[in-house]
Amino acid sequence: MRPPGVKATKARGKKIVVEENALKEFQTMWSIKQHDLECAERVSEKKSFY
Q1: Do the beta carbons of residue 4 and residue 12 sit within 8 Å?
Q2: What is the pLDDT of residues 7-25, one digit of tens each?
Q3: Measured between alpha carbons, how far is residue 28 from residues 33, 38, 46 in Å?
Q4: What is the spatial distance between Cα 12 and Cα 5, in angstroms, rounded to a whole number?
């Protein structure tokens, strides 16, 4: 078999980095969203207490 060309190798390398960056960005947004939901839950509990 012939090894992949230079351009094909570069293209494959760039796609993996883009997918990893998107995954990291999604995880970051999800953790922020979880934190916001927890804070909103605490606030609603305090409102119902008073």
Answers
A1: yes
A2: 888 777 666 666 777 888 9
A3: 9, 16, 27
A4: 11
